Amino acid sequence: MDFEVLYPNWGTYFDINELSDIDLPFPKAFKNFIETNLLPASRPVTSSSAKGGRPGVPIFEHSVINHFKQYEDASVKYLLMPSSVSLLPGLAKKGVTQVFHDSLATIYEMPHPRSFFSTPSSCTVTSSGDNKATLNCATATTLLRTELS
């Protein structure tokens, strides 16, 4: 999740999955998911980008704190934040840790994000990318690929 470090859609340009996305067409189900699960007080027109620039970043930090499990269930693994913004203590208490820092950005890692590929049953899922997964299951199951859909 990008907290106003990269311009929207750079994830698409670099082929990186991101929650802060404004690619068009913007999926209605994803818009509804944001409004219902991640930012209930917000009504984003097209994305989950921080409104109001850097002063809007704390709003998103509090949203992650208040809806932590939902963000991890959405497969959010990293939080990309301006280096000028300090991580709220509530996120550190939940296990968010710094994995990179420079003068522009700080990257924090969520402790238990849902895998990009998952199943509702006890299968072994291995994947080396976003477009291919190998499953080892005792019975038939459904493979879920977490993405904008």
Helix and strand layout, with pairings?
Elements lengths: L9 H4 L14 H11 L18 H10 L1 H6 L4 E5 L6 H5 L3 E5 L3 E5 L7 E2 L5 E3 L7 E3 L7 E2 L4
Antiparallel strand pairs: 1-3, 2-3, 4-7, 5-6
Strand order of the largest sheet: 1-3-2
Question: How many separate helices?
Answer: 5
Extract low-pLDDT stretches.
45-54
Share of β-strand residues: 15-25%
Global Rg = 16 Å
Shape: globular
Give the helices and strands as they follow along the chain.
Answer: HHHHEHEEEEEE
Quick check: average pLDDT? 79
Main β-sheet, in a few words?
A: 3 strands, antiparallel
- The secondary-structure class comes to alpha+beta
**How many distinct beta strands?**
7
Helix share, percent: 10-25%
Determine the N-to-C terminus distance.
Answer: 17 Å
Describe the 3D structure.
The chain has 149 residues and is of the alpha+beta class. The protein is 24% helix and 17% strand. It has five helices and seven strands, in the order ααααβαββββββ. It has helices at residues 10-13, 28-38, 57-66, 68-73, 89-93; strands at residues 78-82, 97-101, 105-109, 117-118, 124-126, 134-136, 144-145. The strands form three sheets. Strands 1-3-2 form a three-stranded antiparallel beta sheet, with no helix packed on it. A two-stranded antiparallel sheet has the order 4-7. Residues 45-54 have low confidence and may be disordered.
